[in-house]
Amino acid sequence: MPVTRYIFIPELTTFYDDRDYPQKIATAIKKAITQKYFETHSTREQASDPKDSLFRTRFPMGGILELEGKDESELSPDCISRRCTDILALSSDEQRTKQLSVFIKKVHVKGFTLPFAELSIKEREAAQVKAFDFNPVDDSALQLTQPPLLYLKKIGPELFFLLFTDHQFFLNFENWRHYNAREPKGKGCMYDLFHATATLCERLMTPSETNLTMEEIQTLHKQLSESVFANLKEDKRGVFRESYNSFPLHYDAVTVAGIKELLQRIKSDKQAEGFRIGYFKKSLIVSSFCNNMSNLIREEAPWKKFPVDEEDVLTSERLKELEEFEKSELERLETLAINATAKSRNIPLDDVKAIIKSFLQDFTPHKRVAKSHYWSNLSYYYSDLSSNYRHSSPKAECQYDLDFARSHALASAGNVTPPAVNIQDFTEQELEDLAKKIYKEIQGGANIHLFTPEPTLARKWAQDALQNYNRAIRNTQKAEEVIQVVDGLVHELEILHLFHDVNCRTNYLLMNFLFLRRSIKWATEFNPNRLDAHSSKERVLQHKQAISRTDYIIAHQEQLAKYNERLDLIYLANLRHLQTVQYTSTELSAIRVDGQYSEMAQQLIAKLDEFEKIFQGTLNTIIKKYDLQMHGQTAVTAQFFPVPPDYMQFVKALKQLQSDYNINDFFTRVAHLELVTEIREDLKRLQTLTGYNAQWLLTERPNLEYSLETS
Asked: Long-range contact list for 203-210, CB < 8 A, 24+ apart?
């Protein structure tokens, strides 16, 4: 008879969803056995009790593995240890996963349970897409049947945040609070997303056939970057970048076909100042310099060369001597630190000197510490700076690293010089081989970036893309054509990376605004960064799946709302340092949810409510007008001026629209009434108000266009 046991694994929440999770889980189990804290429990409740755990102070970081074996001997420490040793010796994570799944059935993390087979986020995505009953060739499933804002209103306000956050996070037990915590400055990035979406909804309330402009995109970026650039001296909201930049090609955001399309683009552009692809590595010049300064100050002990008693009152002459000594000693130590940095980092001395000179002029560390115990304070300060600059490089160092990476690119074209690889004369097969090589490197963990064009060139290409979009979108006949044209624009804007930051969010919201404006449903993307380096066909398929995901959210929102409510409580419980891995209803009962989300979402809720009132008011006014004509006649007037039967058909259709908001059915049913002058004017009014894309109707009824033109 099968035996089930539960074991607690410390820190499981920090690596259970890593790409190499099979290796890390096997290693963690072996470590638990080796260090004698491996303990099996017959129930999950026993494994969840932190009382006797060595890790009780960090219990929420852990998780529970649910093991299953034929008998007790299969789950003994010795047997499992041997299994893990064999598993770690396997050559691939796929093989490790298969062998681990023999005895690990479920994983309990963050208050939720996952089948071991769905631990990979890719598996969870695939399972969700399968639940959509997705049909990639059904154009009608992509089209709005309601006015855009009433379509959005079908979603409960508590789930609005799903529209503009990466769905992969929600599927991995994170909601808007986790997303907002990444950029909490100002009012928070979630507030900016709600604010920008409400503004876009305002624009949808006044449909316009005018061209999309770069100024509109800048305005959107400005709203979305309020919090990111909060409290900065230099206002970068809606401001184009002034220098080269780059962004990493993430392993989940690339495909071989997508990389090949980027390579083909680089080849056809033939621009040395254009796109490049290559490795990016931080030089860490400033961090290394700061570390060397900290160590040198401790080793050299300069305070011993000019001893000063803290009780002494220095004369002006003595104070001047001290200042001159500190200045000369600093210069000497800085020279030593610069030389040591150049040697340890294997970087030309002149390059290091230039970057450190810029850093010292801009930051002046020696002026930022107290004079009391000056040298020891300065040593500690440099140590802190070294740690900080390992994660975030100063501007001059960033630019140096970027220039170095571009000059050593794996792919570039035009008038480029070695060691950058010029692919201008590559054959299709060579491009294919290079794409496969780059893809393999990225999947193996290499930090490979797409280097963006020189700023002026990037803006020119962006304007060209806008012109192409404005020209092409007018001629789209089908939903898939709209998606292709919109995707072409946002992909171009995404890889051009026009702004200092918040490019993907800007392009993601822009894409969905353009979809709604052309009567296409909202696309809730699993990972919006796939705009970067998936092929055009793959991106269009992603958008279609994302539209199905929005439909899924609407259809299952009660279930998703409960899931989100639990995410909220668990997040707040962790802020209170609740020591648990189960998060039972009893444990969460004391948690109180704040009103932060309601405050952020209110602007969008109000905008959608406002439109519904306008829509209903307009319908009431039109219905009342025709009702008066039909029911306000006397018997005599009715005899000589009978009410056209078209009016009755129109009113019936209006009342149905008032009930179900289905503009697609409405405009299809009343299409033949366009020939009635008064009705035609009201139809135009409703078409403008609802943003209905009449092109769908013309596609379905090819003879209608002629009758309208000749009426």
From this structure: 203/513, 204/148, 204/149, 204/513, 204/516, 204/517, 204/691, 205/149, 205/607, 205/610, 205/611, 205/614, 207/517, 207/688, 207/689, 207/691
Q: How far apart are CA 429 and CA 414, in angstroms?
A: 20
Q: What is the CA radius of gyration of the chain?
A: 32
Q: What is the pLDDT of residue 382?
A: 97
Whether the per-residue pLDDT at 201 is higher than 50: the answer is yes
Q: What are the backbone dihedrals phi and psi of residue 115, each rounded to the nearest 5 degrees, phi first?
A: -60, 140
Q: Find out whether 261 and 435 touch, Cβ atoms under 8 Å.
A: no
Q: What is the pLDDT of residue 702?
A: 39
Place 710 in a pLDDT band, splitting at 50, 70 and 90.
very low
Q: Minimal CA–CA distance to 26: which of 105, 122, 99, 94?
A: 99
Q: How far apart are CA 495 and CA 515, in angstroms?
A: 20
pLDDT in tens, 657-704: 999 999 999 999 999 998 888 999 999 999 999 988 766 554 444 333
Cis status, amide bond into 2, omega within 30 of 0: no
HSE on the CB side for 340, CA within 13 Å? 17
704 CB-contact burial (10 Å; exposed 0-12 / middle 13-18 / buried 19+): middle
pLDDT exceeds cutoff 60 at 640 = no
Helices (H), 89-207: 93-100, 121-131, 148-152, 167-171, 176-182, 189-204
pLDDT exceeds cutoff 90 at 306: no
Nearest to 533 by CA among 246, 249, 121, 244: 249
Residue 637 has pLDDT above 70, yes or no: no
pLDDT tens readout for residues 328-341: 999 999 999 999 99
Q: Which residues contact 215 (CB under 8 A, 6 or more apart)?
A: none
For 531-662, where are the alpha helices, taking DSSP H only? 536-555, 557-575, 585-588, 596-631, 635-640, 645-660
How far apart (Å, rounded) are the C-alpha atoms in residues 256 and 276? 16
Domain boundaries, the chain: 3-119, 257-281+400-451, 287-390, 607-710
Collapsed DSSP state (helix, strand, coil) of residue 419: coil
CA dist 244 and 278 (Å) reads: 14
- Looking at residue 645, its pLDDT comes to 83
Identify residue 528 by its one-letter amino acid code.
P
Instruction: Tell me the C-alpha distance between 626 and 502, whole Å.
Output: 50
Q: Which residue has the higher pLDDT, 692 or 459?
A: 459
C-alpha triplet 130, 136, 137: angle, nearest 5°:
145
Which residues are 70's β-sheet partners?
none
- 217 closest CA partner among 235, 203, 207, 228: 203
Dmax (CA) of the chain: 117
Q: What percent of the chain has pLDDT over 70?
A: 94
How far apart (Å, rounded) are the C-alpha atoms in residues 87 and 475? Answer: 57
